[in-house]
Amino acid sequence: MISLPPWANGPFELLVHAEGHLRNGDDFDRRIALISFDNAIEVAITTYLTLNPIQRGGRSYPKAEVDKWLNNYHTKLDFLEAEIAARCSSWQVDKSHIVWAHDHRNEQYHGGHKGTPEKNVLKIVRDAALWVFAMLFEVCEAEAALENAIIDRALPGAPAPDKRLDVAIDAQYGVITVGEQSYYVSELLFAVDYTAYRDLGGRLCTPPEESAQEAEGTEGEKQP
C-alpha cells in the first residue's frame, strides 16, 4: 500500500475518478475523463498553494503572489512554471500541450463542439495530471498508487457509477460550479452520497406512468 499525505487525498480522488471513466472507454466516459483529469491539475495546484509551509517542505510564497496565482487556470500554470524553475526541474508535459488539452476541456462545457476527445488529448491531460500531482505532493509512485486505488474500487461489493443513472441525472441537472470547478451533477452526487445518487437516478429513469402506478400501489397497501 502506497501512503499519501492526507492533504493529497482530495486531488488524488479526482485522479481516481478520471481514471475510472477513462478505462470504461465509451464516448461519455472519455468526456468525463478529460474534464476530471483537467480539474485534477487545477485542484492539485490550488491545494498545494493553500497548504501550510510545513506541509510542503518548508516552501513559502508571498501572499500577493499566491493570490495572483490562484486567480485562474492559466495563472496556476504560471505558478507551476515558477515552481519548476525554483526546483531546477523541467516540464515533463509541455505547457503548451497542457493548455491545448484544457481548451478541449472547455469545449465540453462552453463550446459548440461536444464530440469525443481524441486519445492523444486524453494521454496529454492524464500524463500532466499525474506528473503535477506527483511533483507537488512528492509522491514517487503516483501511477502505482492510482492503479491500487482502481483495483480497490473494483473489489466485490464496492459501488460503481451506473451509466444509465449518469445520463438521466445529467440530462436533468447538467453541470454545476463549485468554487472555480465545474462538475457533472452525477459525478458529485456519486462521490458524496451514493444512496441519493442511486435513488434520484432511479426515479429519473422510471417512466412517469410507472411512477404513478407504483404510487397508486403504495397508497392501496396503506388502506385498511
What does this protein look like?
The protein is 67% helix and 4% strand. It is built from eleven helices and two strands; from the N terminus they run H-H-H-H-H-H-H-H-E-E-H-H-H. It has helices at residues 9-24, 27-49, 63-69, 73-86, 95-109, 119-136, 142-153, 163-173, 185-192, 194-205, 208-222; strands spanning 175-178, 181-184. A two-stranded antiparallel sheet has the order 1-2. Strand 1 (175-178) and strand 2 form a beta hairpin. Helix 1 runs antiparallel to helix 6 (119-136), helix 2 runs parallel beside helix 6 and helix 5 (95-109) packs across helix 6 (119-136). It is globular and about 65 Å long.
Task: Count up the domains.
Answer: 2
The secondary-structure class comes to: mainly alpha
**What is the overall number of helices?**
11
Q: What proportion of the residues is helical, as a percent range?
A: 55-70%
The total beta strand count reads: 2
Q: Strand order, biggest sheet?
A: 1-2
Silhouette: globular
CATH fold-type name of the largest domain? Four Helix Bundle (Hemerythrin (Met), subunit A)
Mind sketching the topology for me?
Layout: H1 9-24, H2 27-49, H3 63-69, H4 73-86, H5 95-109, H6 119-136, H7 142-153, H8 163-173, E1 175-178, E2 181-184, H9 185-192, H10 194-205, H11 208-222
Antiparallel strand pairs: 1-2
Short description:
With 224 residues, this protein is mostly helical.
Key features of this structure:
two-stranded antiparallel sheet, 2 domains, mainly alpha, 224 residues, Four Helix Bundle (Hemerythrin (Met), subunit A)
